[in-house]
User: Fold this.
Amino acid sequence: MTVLTRVRMSAKLENLGTFIGSLSNCARTQGFEQEKIGRMELAAEEALVNVFRYAYPGAPGDVEMICKLEENRFTIEIMDSGIPFDVTAMPDPKVAGGVHEREPGGLGIFFIKKVIDEVQYRRENDRNILTLIIQKD
Assistant:
């Protein structure tokens, strides 16, 4: 697997544009069509914002994003040392019915699972590693 780009910054909302810009440029240079790049951007943005908001309650922390390519699989790894949180273990929210009938939260993770081909999570060396995979073809 070839690492295409790596960005590590403070887990702050003002750094979101740098992360997403790096992802977009990387995917574009690999020949991905804009529709798939848009899906990658949306999913990565949702995942990163969750890290910025929830991974480090009351303390500063970093987040790292690595983009990789292996054959026809473009992989985005988002890593942080915050509190453990397995997005893949979250049940899908109930989306039937009106907005007022739903429990708040959970839509972002549901959205990531819908726009990305494969979502994986692991906890390794006290780090959360969220892997988003999208097929090139």
Summary: Residues 34-55 form the longest helix (22 residues).
